[in-house]
Structure formats: structure tokens, C-alpha cells
Write a structure and sequence with these properties.
Blueprint lengths: L2 E5 L4 E5 L8 H19 L5 H4 L75 E5 L6 H14 L12 E2 L19 E2 L2 E2 L3 H7 L5 E7 L2 H11 L2 H9 L5 H12 L20 H4 L2 H7 L5 H15 L2 E4 L3 H12 L24 H10 L1 H21 L1 H25 L1
Parallel strand pairs: 3-5, 3-7, 4-6, 7-8
Antiparallel strand pairs: 1-2
Helix pairs in contact: 1-14, 6-7, 11-13, 11-14
């Protein structure tokens, strides 16, 4: 499909075309899936020509679907407070200060009982969406869902021409401009999170910021296979090595020797695009370099807590999306997803408890953040109502199954 923003110079919409080849099984499956989706959208009255056409249109002539989701319950409190936090815990280092600047943080993230939210979190009226993709967390699945929402509602995407990622923060002038008289509305690409830049493009006052995290060991193993590290390590370890030995070879080749299990690692040595890399840990850690590693991580989590209105959890993706639906006032149809890049589990890809322990040790930042934001998601669910969320998750799964059953019948 085409994701278009307006180019003032050529009076056309700049588009990002998906790479879909009929010469592969995946390409054929993706193509059939897209066709099914287009047929379904057509049958419900959606103007599919606006997706495929690369010519600019008069916005007034295009039917726009406005979400009519249920209102956010009035009894939701806009702030959560952890009892162990004082009034200064949310203060973060100013990157313009000297390296001696200190940040008030707690010493143990196990004390993070509830999420730290900004004042405007969950306030109705946030129509724009910022989604920070993270690697191997179902973010491609979620990103496609948000793409479709943006297309259906004629939103302006944050794009750099002919790129599908923003790993290097661009200048504003490098971005595809929004349509004349409009602003950017939605970001769904891979990037390196840079709050100062993101706020210029999508201000926090009217944008819902979200991302997604996955249990660190399962995320690492998924990335290990996806990026063909098992094949690479076989060249070092030998053709007869087990999967567990291949993983240990990667750890040995990439990370320093563990001196003490009680001392957290000082670097992201495992590689393979971990979530701290995606969410800007490298630049952030420079601003808190004078702190102990544990305190640096606490400060990083507090920063993310302040920036993200919701951190979704891969293992609870349906619940996460239902919570998002509440905050964005969307419909069930807005959160329907088709799982992508799913490798599945294989009996020959197992690891020992000792190897699992090593991965968790070197995923120190990721593990602490995952535990905190898992608890934070539970707090979101409690605030909305556990029974309400459970009912809507069941309704959503029934709706999703029926949606794709109709799609299969149409094809």
C-alpha cells in the first residue's frame, strides 16, 4: 500500500512502497493478505482508491472515517504515584549541564510499584500517535495496524523519503512535509528515540506516545535467529554445536567475562538491536555517566515513564491494544492485527537455565525495564477496570477471528 504525504514542489504525494515479491512464499502470503484486507475494506465501504493512488487529492472529497470508540471512564486518575518516590524523582538531567549533574533516583527498581505519568497522560483529545518500534517485539505487527489506522483517517506520517527507519535523527527539513496547512499526525517507523526531536514533530500536548517491550530472553533468542547469528556462530563453534552452545559462543564473543553476578554489566554487549538501543540509551547514558550503573538505569526508566503514555507488553498484546483503544477512543476495528515475522518455537532451539541466566544478566537494562512496565500495564488495566478489560479482550478476539474468517471467505 502507499503511505503518502504531500510534496509541495511536485504537487504530488510522496509514497513509501512495500517490498513485496511474488517470487517467495512470504511474498505471496503477504500479497494475498493485502488483497484480502483491501477486499474487506472495500466491502465495508472504505474508499480503497485513496490507498493506491499516488496523486494528491482534495481532502474535502475523500471520505474520512472518524473513530467512535467508547469514552474514557471519568473515574480514571491522571497520575499514579509510587510511595517510594519523592517530588523530585521525575527530574532528569539537563544534557547541557556538566557531567557532574546528579539525578535523584531510587536505588532499586523493584520499588517501582506504579508508573510515573506526566500531567497530560490519558487526557481525552490526543489524536496524534507516536509509536517507537523496538526490534523483535511484535512491533512490525503493531506498526502495520497503526499504518492502516493512519491511512484510513488520512493522517500525515512522519517519513524520510525512501527510508523506513529514522535511526539517525534527521533535521526537520529532511522529513516529508505534511499536507499544506496540516501537521504531522503519526510516527510508526523504527528509530532511535530522541525526545527533544520527537516533541518538535509531534508535541506531547496532543500526541499519545507508546512503545512495546518483550520478555528479554525470548526477545534475544528471536533476534539471535532472525539476524542469522546461529549460522554465524556455527562457523566459530563448529557444525555439530547445539543451539545452546551457539548462544554461549555469541555471549563469549560479544561480552566480557562475568566477574560477579551482583555487579550489573556496564555495556550493551549482546547487540542485536535491544530495546535500550532503540529507545536512546546510548545518548541518555552520557548525561548520567557520573551515576552508578544501577542509578543510570533507574533514571532511564523514569525518563521513559515520563515520555511514554503507555508501554505495551508483547506477551499481553491483546490487553495492551484494548488499553490503547480506551485512551485513543478507537473502535475494535482500529486495533485488529495480522501477526508478522513470527518464527515460532522449535524443539531444537532450547537453552539451559545457566544460559538463560547469562542472557538476563547481560540484558540488565532490558530486564529491569520489562519488569517495571509489566507492572505499569497492570496498573493501567486496574485503573480502567480489570473486568471491563477482560470482557473487551474476549470481545476483541472474537471480533478479530470473525474479521479474518470473512477475509478468507472473500478470497
Amino acid at each position: 500500500m502507499l503511505v503518502g504525504n504531500y510534496d509541495r514542489n511536485t504537487n504530488t504525494e510522496i509514497v513509501a512502497r512495500p517490498k513485496c515479491s511474488f517470487n517467495s512464499v512470504k511474498g505471496r502470503i503477504l500479497s494475498v493478505s493485502v488483497i484480502c484486507l483491501m477486499i474487506t475494506l472495500y466491502t465495508i465501504g472504505f474508499d480503497t482508491t485513496m490507498i493506491w493512488s499516488s496523486t494528491s487529492h482534495d481532502a474535502s472529497s475523500i471520505p474520512i472515517t472518524i473513530p467512535q470508540g467508547g469514552a474514557i471512564p471519568q473515574d480514571i486518575e491522571h497520575q499514579f504515584a509510587a510511595a517510594s518516590y519523592d517530588d523530585n524523582v521525575q527530574s532528569l538531567p539537563d544534557t547541557s549541564r556538566s557531567s557532574s549533574a546528579r539525578v535523584h533516583v531510587i536505588s532499586n527498581t523493584s520499588q517501582l510499584k506504579a508508573p510515573i505519568m506526566t500531567q497530560n497522560t490519558m487526557i481525552p483529545g490526543k489524536k496524534n500517535l507516536f509509536f517507537a518500534k523496538t526490534h523483535k517485539t511484535a512491533s512490525s505487527t503493531l506498526g502495520t495496524t497503526f499504518y492502516l489506522y493512519g491511512i484510513r483517517n488520512r493522517l500525515n506520517f512522519v517519513l524520510v523519503p525512501y527510508q523506513n527507519h529514522l535511526f539517525v535523527t534527521p533535521n526537520l527539513s529532511e522529513l516529508v512535509p505534511p499536507r499544506p496547512g496540516q501537521t504531522w499526525n503519526i510516527q510508526t517507523n523504527h528509530l532511535t528515540f530522541n525526545p527533544d526531536f520527537e516533541h518538535q514533530v509531534l508535541p506531547k500536548s496532543n500526541t499519545f506516545y507508546t512503545t512495546v517491550l518483550r520478555e528479554p530472553v525470548s526477545r534475544f533468542l528471536s533476534a539471535f535467529s532472525y539476524f542469522d547469528q546461529d549460522k554465524l556462530m556455527r562457523g566459530i563453534c563448529g557444525s555439530n554445536c547445539t543451539f545452546d552452545e551457539l548462544v554461549n559462543t555469541h555471549i563469549k564473543e560479544s561480552c566480557p567475562e562475568i566477574v560477579s553476578w551482583d555487579i550489573p554489566p556496564s555495556e550493551l554487549c549482546l547487540g542485536l538491536y535491544s530495546f535500550p538501543t532503540d529507545l536512546g540509551w546510548k545518548n541518555f547514558s552520557v548525561s548520567v555517566a557520573d551515576l552508578e550503573m544501577e542509578d543510570q538505569v533507574d533514571a532511564f526508566i523514569v525518563m521513559l515513564d515520563r515520555e511514554m503514555d503507555l508501554v505495551m507488553i508483547t506477551e499481553r498484546i491483546d490487553e495492551s491494544l484494548v488499553v490503547l483503544k480506551h485512551y485513543m477512543k478507537w473502535n475494535m476495528s482500529d486495533i485488529v492485527y495480522w501477526s508478522q515475522k513470527v518464527s515460532g518455537s522449535r524443539p531444537d532451539k532450547v537453552i539451559s537455565e545457566e544460559t538463560r541466566k547469562k542472557i538476563l544478566y547481560f540484558s540488565y537494562i532490558e530486564n529491569r525495564a520489562y519488569n517495571h512496565f509489566s507492572a505499569a500495564l497492570e496498573n493501567h488495566i486496574v485503573q480502567i477496570g480489570k473486568d471491563k478489560i477482560s470482557e473487551e479482550v474476549a470481545e476483541f478476539r472474537t471480533f478479530k477471528d470473525a474479521f479474518f474468517e470473512d477475509c478468507a471467505m472473500s478470497c
